[in-house]
Amino acid sequence: MVKSTSKDLRVVIVGGGFAGLTAAIECKLRGMHPVLVEAYPGASSHGDLLDFVRNAGRVFESWDNGNVGRRLMAAGVNAAKYLEFYNAENVLLRRDPWPQAADKDCVYAGHRGEMHRIIYEYAIEIGVDMQFNKRVEQYLDSDTERGVLICGGEKILGDVVLACDGPRSLARSQLLHLPESTVNSGYAIFRAFFNITDEMRQLPEFSEMIKEGEDSVRFWVGRDMHGFIYTWKNGRDCAWVLTHLDDANIAEMWSFPGKKEDVAKYLKDAGFPIIWHQALEATPADRIIDYKLVWRDAIPTWLSNSKKCAVMGDAAHCHLPTSAQGACQAVEDAVTAAICLQKCNGDVAAGLQVFERIRFNRSHVIHQASILTRNIYHKNDWTPELVREYPDSLIIPFYPWVTDFDVFANAEENFNQLLQDVRSAKPGTIEELALPAGGDYDGMLLEKRIPEERLDELTPSNAVRVQS
Ligand SMILES: Cc1cc2nc3c(=O)[nH]c(=O)nc-3n(C[C@H](O)[C@H](O)[C@H](O)COP(=O)(O)OP(=O)(O)OC[C@H]3O[C@@H](n4cnc5c(N)ncnc54)[C@H](O)[C@@H]3O)c2cc1C
């Protein structure tokens, strides 16, 4: 049954990550009735580094007259001047302005758990119904029951389901009927976050990065390995992440306590500089996580057969960190879904089809770029000369078409035309019916330099070509 107005809609949201929280907040702010169900007992405080750039940052900035943005800014890496790139020999390759230094309003970088907590607290403040400690066992999508069945038997029903249940999404198999695909990316990340002590400040190379009144962000690239070290809050906090080739079979488990000796071996094998060994020495052993990176191939649709349930965020496009956009894209999905539900006058199936057509191509191109970018970092022997010759290749791909994107305006501007397309049953594939992606990553390619036989390594596997 079509509800008379979107205000009556009860939106069941599964997952309290950045996608689920944003969807719940945006639905609530638009007068709907979201109920968020999350398996964990509360807001997740774990994690290390996460950067939100302007395309997602503008969403947080729009909340509570800018107060959420101000809280994120206060918690984050807000006093860095540069992002510095080094090779494994610790030669400085380039120095770019730190995005937050150049773009203060809507760029937030910092501790993932802290940023998650700020957004979670805002959801509480505006009265979002959040139900923690409830694991969804079954998605329900019939004419009589739409919603979820929780372990233990409780049913939570609504008019529409937004499945924001992350990389290991149950919704993909139950709602979209896709076979479960666990794709080992072949890479893993060691991750750590800790408070810097006076003793740590004595480590000579590491201490270079610890400054009163200035945050530091450095990025190293080597053969099959790259890593970031951040220090912030007046040299109080440190986080590092080190992505490396990994041969573990991660079909089931994918996050383990990390061992210092394993990290040391990878650093040694890749010839990473002494500053990395000192950062490792400084790190409390129990603060290292060995996180196996899982990749998911692109999926052909985000909607269930009824078109009244959608997957989004990492459930729809599980990014590798090298796109630097996984969470940002999850936020864009969530806002777009909320706008489409608000504007569809209760015709949820039409609203979600418009949502999919707004998001599909843009999200796909950015998703695929996470492999492309990683390979460009890893498969070249970076020197200052190579960077001079190909200055557009060794970058964090914050292209204007990615970061300046206004998700609110985009959805508002395109909704009516796409709704008309849906209602008139315009023929075409989803790639043809969806908005163009708006850009590509071709500027990063070094094809001229790379031997023909190795070009395959630089192209995302299973990439579906879409309009750009
Ligand atoms: C090391 C690293 C660095 C990254 N850096 C960046 C970055 O700088 N910028 C960026 O934009 N992105 C980054 N990303 C990507 C980003 O973290 C993810 O894309 C984003 O967090 C996905 O959010 P999500 O809400 O879709 O999924 P998740 O955060 O995975 O949330 C899914 C939620 O669903 C819950 N859930 C799952 N199944 C059930 C169930 N059956 N019942 C109830 N609840 C369930 C889970 O408990 C979880 O809380 C990085 C990723 C990594 C690994």
Automatic annotation (TrEMBL):
Cross-referenced InterPro entries: FAD-bd (IPR002938), FAD-dep_Monooxygenase_BioMet (IPR050493), FAD/NAD-bd_sf (IPR036188)
Keyword Ubl conjugation attached: no
Pfam family, one: FAD_binding_3
Signal peptide interval: none
Taxonomy, superkingdom: Eukaryota
Sequence ranges assigned to domain FAD-binding in this UniProt record: 9-341
PANTHER family: MONOOXYGENASE, MONOOXYGENASE, PUTATIVE (AFU_ORTHOLOGUE AFUA_6G12060)-RELATED
Family: Belongs to the paxM FAD-dependent monooxygenase family.
Name of this protein: FAD-binding domain-containing protein
Organism, scientific name: Penicillium coprophilum
